[in-house]
Amino acid sequence: MLTDALKKQIQGAYSQFLENKGLKSRYGQKLMIAEIAKTLGSIELDDENHREIVEGAGGLRTGGHICVVEAGTGTGKTIAYLLPAIVMAKALGKKLVVSTATVALQEQIVNKDLPELHRNSGLSFSFTLAKGRGRYLCLSKLDNVIAEYESGINPTRALYEDEFPSVSAQGIKLYQSMMDALAGNKWTGERDTWPQALEQNEWQIITTDHRQCTGRRCSNVSACSFFKARDSMHSVDCIVTNHDLVLADLALGGGAILPAPEDTIYVFDEGHHLPQKALNHFAHHSRMISTSKWLDQCNKSLGAMLGVISGAGNVDRYGEQLPAALIDCKQRLDQLYPVFEQLAQSIAFDDRQSHYRFNNGVVPQDLLIPCVELYKGFDRLSELLKKMCDELNEAMEDAHCPVPKIDLENHYPILGAWQARADANRDLWASFATPDTPSSVPKARWLTPVDSSGNMDLEVCSSPILAAKTLEYSLWEKACGVVITSATLTALGNFYRFQMRAGTPNDANYKVVPSPFNFQQATLEIPAATVEATNADVHTLAIIDDLPNLIDPNAGTLVLFSSRKQMLDVFEDMPEELREIILLQGDNSKQEMLVQHKKRIDDGQGSVLFGLASFAEGVDLPGKYCTHVIIAKLPFAVPDDPIEAALSEWIEARGGNAFMEITVPDASLKLIQACGRLLRTETDTGKISLLDRRIITKRYGKAILNSLPPFTHIIHK
Ligand code: SF4
């Protein structure tokens, strides 16, 4: 309930924050604070401290606890959600979980926004950063790597190459320095705080996942950086994390890593990424040949493993059954491979299609039985491995166990990694073995040929085509309260696209907060020489002709392409003097390109960035760093994406128009993001040139144009 006292507290904290920071209140920011306070303030708790489902005009309200706010750059939205969410979460006795899509925003919230709010608002709260287990060192693994190297005996590594890649002398130096830093309290064991960037292959040797970690039974648990970080979550009011960790927690049922959804107020910043991230989390894939080889390898190393852990609880009983289970899975995979290979070869692979997709997600009847058998095989394998892990885990507590604890601790992660791989295969084949029901949204199922160390392999993939249902039952229905925000949640001027993909209820509180920017300070221009981007060659030639006239060689320009080929073709044909000031995506990391670009502008030179989709979002080039954004083409999705293709197919099958329902809204949203690169502060000015005449010649183009911010239009006929 949003009582007068709570209202006063929020208003008072906001005024104090502005005063202490010497800032003026912003209309959009105030509006956003009010909407979030109103939504979270409407949450009522029952006797068990759970959110009550309340009556609305049309029956039970399913979205009264959810606030979806689009707030553009310059709104000051971080403070606008932190402030009311902290107050309301504390009033409800719930944890606040603030989740972002990118590390950059996470760091900004933890290192700048929350400390500033804490210092200047008079609010009392505590916060911490929560990262996935994979960002923390596993002390047991570090111990083992160093001990095995120093003793010159590498029995475990030699046997299980897949799970334990070999370590170089250079690597050991690094690991030794990590151990020293930990011992001297100079490092917490968190990957991101190690002074140098760490390569993934260096890091993966010394980190772990939940299947390989022995948890509270581990000899190192009291010094374990992951458990220390996790324990600190229990005592704070606000946890800052990322969408992946929230989704990983929900995939485990919620409350396994983070607080339970029922006890949490979530804020999803960069919320437009959530549906796609959720799709990734609930997708399955596995390579057939490499899995077959791995099963073989497991079987070969099993004897040696059992020789070490024999006698630990009932491990031998299950271990004896493993060879048959491993061989069964391998044989069934090897039998199915040529059939799938033939399917994959039945289509001509070109630039536009790099996979074989099962139409409507339907696996043909004659392939269902082998898929069911594979599912059963991996299910059996996974069960045996789980039982062996449980036996080892139990044995660690057993003072009479004949197997030394060090051997149990060494082999537990190996069996855990095996189980994780068996589970992944089980889930994939379950998806292939279970046809979708007529009333459900079908899954996308497809095969992708891949080059695996010079040999052909087939990746078998399955993914939901919409995350809506999954998010609905795992998140929206369970959470105590939710705020979703981003600069781009609407497409074509409404929230339908987001709702379809994220599954947020119709009766949630949807709001667009007015931008503080005067968009008339920027022009959107369709130059006279612009053609329709329907014929790629003609369009590319037109851009090559026109671009040198459009670019000011003394200013900061961002040119955004939708196709790498077009970007490279255009670059090749640019005049020499222009090529010298162009920074081309792919030549350097994005970060490095941005640093170079800014330096040139700071030095009074001109600079031009040529980039693809990743430059259309999240790139912040205020003021003179970017006064001209050139967009080569309306950003329609690549036709090759199997999930998008399956979604379009499903919409068409239901009598819908996939182009108008999916393709056009997606392009609208991406174009808004691309245009958003120009004005980054209230004083910025500049120009956007769109080199695709379809925006004025096609009916859908006009709809896209009308949904852009109200720039001054200059349209040359
Ligand atoms: S508790 Fe788990 S993550 Fe921590 S050191 Fe032990 S095995 Fe590694």
Commentary on this structure:
With 717 residues, the protein is an alpha/beta fold. Helices cover 48% and strands 14% of the residues. The chain contains 25 helices and 20 strands. It has a seven-stranded parallel sheet, with helices on both faces. Strands 16-17-15-18-19-14-20 form a seven-stranded parallel sheet, with helices on both faces. A four-stranded antiparallel sheet has the order 8-11-10-9, with helices on both faces. α21 (590-602) links the parallel β16 and β17 (607-611). α1 runs antiparallel to α3, α13 runs antiparallel to α14 (365-395) and α18 crosses α19. The longest helix has 31 residues, at 315-345. The chain is globular. The model has no long low-confidence stretch (mean pLDDT 93). The protein binds iron/sulfur cluster. Iron/sulfur cluster binds at residues 138-140, 208, 213-215, 218, 220-221, 224, 226-227.
